[in-house]
Amino acid sequence: MYRMHVNDIYRYLFRLTRDARQAEDLTQETFFRAFLSLDDYRGEKVRPWLFKVAYHAFVDWHRKQARHPLQIMEQLPERADLQAMDPAEAYVSQELWETAHAYLELLPEQQRQVILLFAMQFRYAEIAEVLGISLADVKRSLFRGRQKMRKLWRDQADDEQGR
Q1: What is the pLDDT of residue 139?
Q2: Taking CA 15 as the corner, what is the angle to CA 117 and CA 139, rounded to the nearest 5 degrees?
Q3: Per the count of CB atoms within 10 A, which of 1, 55, 107, 117 is most buried?
Q4: Among candidates 21, 20, 52, 8, which has minimal Cα distance to 34?
């Protein structure tokens, strides 16, 4: 179970925290919590269950951060495997990811979570289970989050064209 899902859990937590060390710690915390709560596991699909545990580990960490804020050096953006692609393509890809991530940060928490989980190929029902919200809330959050991101992209394009 660990080997099958550790990379996806880490990527999800990294996108939430933007900090490699914190994502590693939260990934470890996720699997530790999952192990401790195996008695509560009711036979549902493992992947959504693990993401639910990861989400709650992130929420707990985030709440703790809000109570005890730390001054941390600006985190580095996630880096793609630049050796595997053409340098120009890698530059454009990295810029697009950084822009998309900046726009994701502007969304309300629920919309950001829904979009991230949907991008990781979760079905609506699985997203609802992970986040503990209704199926209608998942669909609504995905629709509204996408709308806001499109508007941000359009506004940026208009600004670059001098409109």
Answers
A1: 95
A2: 25
A3: 117
A4: 52
Can you list the pairs that 128-137 forms with residues at least 24 positions away whose Cβ atoms lie under 8 Å? 129/44, 129/48, 129/49, 129/52, 130/48, 130/51, 130/52, 130/55, 131/52, 131/55, 132/52, 137/110
Token look-up 């979009």 returns: 115
Burial 103-138 (b: 16+ CB within 10 A, else e): bbeebeebbbbbbbbbebebeeebbbbbbebeeeeb
**Owner of token pair 């639910």:** 52
**Rounded Cα gap, residues 11 and 23, in angstroms:** 8
Per-residue pLDDT band for 77 (boundaries 50, 70, 90) equals very low
